[in-house]
Amino acid sequence: MRTTDLSGQALAITDDTFAEDVLNQHVPVLVDFWAEWCPPCHMLAPTLDQIARERAGSLLIRKINNDENPVTGASYRVLSLPTLILFRDGEVVHTVVGARPKARLLAEIDDALRRPI
């Protein structure tokens, strides 16, 4: 699985692939830190899949299971799930903790991407 693909899929990543799949991308990347036991994570998943399709080519959506990949979550101080972290040019530009309705999440993403780094 290579995440340079801009096909509009929310793809799974790991601690081992995080740098390549997130930090080294030339488009913004929204990373979903989730866990199997987390009901709000499952509620948010279809919304993230929709956003991945709608923003194909301009935004990547990546999912990392925080229980199976604890190193990345710890390095970004992920304490609650779901946590969404938006990266641009390898830098964190916005963090969302908890599920959001699609319209509100898109508004936060768009606002964060309009701001200079």
TrEMBL record:
Alphabetical UniProt keywords: Disulfide bond, Electron transport, Redox-active center, Transport
Ranges in a coiled coil: none
One Gene Ontology CC term in the entry: cytosol
Domain of life: Bacteria
GO function terms (MF aspect): protein-disulfide reductase activity
Disulfide bonds: 38-41
Residue ranges annotated for the Thioredoxin domain, each copy included: 1-114
Site positions for Contributes to redox potential value: 39-40
Residue(s) at site: Deprotonates C-terminal active site Cys: 32
Active-site residues, Swiss-Prot/TrEMBL: 38, 41
GO terms (BP aspect): cell redox homeostasis
One family name in Pfam for this protein: Thioredoxin
Similarity-based family: Belongs to the thioredoxin family.
Protein name as annotated: Thioredoxin
Organism whose genome encodes this protein: Phytoactinopolyspora halotolerans
